[in-house]
Amino acid sequence: MDQIRIIGGFPLHGDVEVGGAKNAALPILAASLLGGGECIIDHVPQVRDLMTMGKLLALLGVEVQTEGHQVILDASHVQSIEAPYDLVKTMRASILALGPLLTRLGEAKVSLPGGCAIGTRPVSLHLKGLAMMGAEIQVEHGYIHAKARRLKGARIDLDFPTVTGTENLIMAACLAEGTTSLHHVAREPEILDLCAFLTKRGAKIHGAGTDTITIEGVAELHGATHWVMPDRVEAGTFVMAGAIAGGDVMIKGCVTDHLGTMFTKIQEMGVELTEGAEGVRVRRAGQLQAVEVKTLPYPGFPTDLQAQMMALMSVAEGTSVMTETIFEGRFLHVPELQRMGASIEVDGPHAVVKGTQALAGAEVMASDLRASAGLVLAGLAAEGETTISRVYHLDRGYERLEEKLQVLGAQVQRVREVA
Ligand code: EPU
Questions:
Q1: Residue percentage of the chain with pLDDT more than 90
Q2: Ligand 1 center to residue 136 CA distance, Å?
Q3: Closest CA to 59 of 41, 48, 39, 75
Q4: Residue 56 pLDDT greater than 90, yes or no
């Protein structure tokens, strides 16, 4: 297994380019299932979750060709309706096959994703919405088995703006009979990107990016070409790398609007952020200042940047408070940051972080994708050497993170774990 080894204390300088968004590419690839015809998807990040999605689609009978950051898909001959446990357990986003399979083929069998390090993560809202569109759904032997001759348009009000739930229902509604109106839906930029792709394929969608989306069902979708939006979580991670390490970094492809309230929070911490045509420039001269942050659905502060933000809070002057409102178990990075000398007390959804002058390098363990990124940032600021094990979590969603940081002058290396 690989480890990441970091010698902290080096400011970052130079330019770094943000890749395509994992969480936009995943539903877009799944949306290939909605019809025949060639779909050419560019700017797909080369990360493990996308490889898993490619494997799943191939298993279902989609022709999948990957070359670098381009994926060409043709779902003219889908043969299977089943997403098996073996794949779903390695990637929860496999649930995104449910809506497309059901609406296109009239039946879908998708393994229940099961537990997850960051929380219980139910999919009940996906199922409730599909049932309102006329699907008969049974959950047995660990599988969701859904059937419907043809889904019917309906009015659906979500109890919570679930991201993949919204995506599943949008995709299902594209081929349903009549009009579906989805209320209180997620407004994440990835939803807009998915809708842009579906519209290119011939879907009729209105209101993407607002909390009400209306979809008029059509008989079929055709092929299309699409360029995936830049990854706002990767961009945010680089913004925070510049903030915690200091120096002067240009993050190319970073779209300020996509960062939501994170942009303002980083400025509040005393970091200079300048928007330009190419991206965002990050400069920090003085010490980081404490802030209060609450994770919320977009455009609030993203839960996917919470662990990274806690690394910054650990070295900020004063006492910061982080409140996690999206996932109940997403504080697994706290004991690891504590090993590096961070002063953090967790009380339910709140973490109170007393900034210390400097973290100390240590051996730590990654527990989930974004927690790993938080530990990398902490390592950049720590005195001495930090070794992060279980970096396969990091590889699920970041493409060559260590190489991109090396270009900026960070002393970071991927090494093989010594047995
Ligand atoms: N929820 C329910 N019932 C449901 C669905 C969700 O109660 O049926 C709750 C969840 O338990 C959670 C909250 O709603 O408390 C938000 O979950 P959501 O469904 O929005 O999350 P998701 O769609 O499973 C996506 C991203 C996550 C990201 C979250 C929140 C993808 C593939 N995944 O997950 O990304 O954290 O939205 O923004 O888009 C990551 O990239 O590291 C990652 C975990």
A1: 93
A2: 24
A3: 75
A4: yes
| Amino acid sitting at position 246 | G
Instruction: Check if the beta carbon of residue 218 is closer than 8 Å to that of residue 175.
Output: yes
Nearest CA-CA partner of 327 in 369, 360, 266? 369
Q: Which residue ranges have their beta carbon within 6 Å of ligand 1? A: 23, 26, 93, 119, 121-126, 160, 162-165, 303-304, 326-327, 369-370, 397
Judge if pTM exceeds 0.90. yes
- What homologous superfamily is domain 22-227 in, according to CATH? Enolpyruvate transferase domain (3.65.10.10)
Task: Return the ligand 1 atom nearest residue 190 CA.
Answer: 39
pLDDT confidence bin for 174, thresholds 50/70/90: very high
Domains 2-19+230-416 and 22-227 share a fold: yes
* The pLDDT of residue 239 is above 90: yes
195 as an active site residue: the answer is no
Rounded alpha-carbon distances, angstroms, from residue 116 to 120, 337, 367 = 6, 21, 10
Considering only CA atoms, which of 156, 211, 213, 154 is closest in space to residue 186? 211
Half-sphere exposure of 12 (CA within 13 A, CB side): 32
Q: Which of 127, 144, 162 has most ligand 1 atoms within 8 Å of its beta carbon, as the pocket-test mutant?
A: 162
Task: Give the CATH number of domain 2-19+230-416; options: 1.10.340.30, 2.40.50.140, 3.65.10.10, 1.20.190.20.
Answer: 3.65.10.10
DSSP per-residue letters across 162-198: -HHHHHHHHHHHHTSBSEEEEES----HHHHHHHHHH
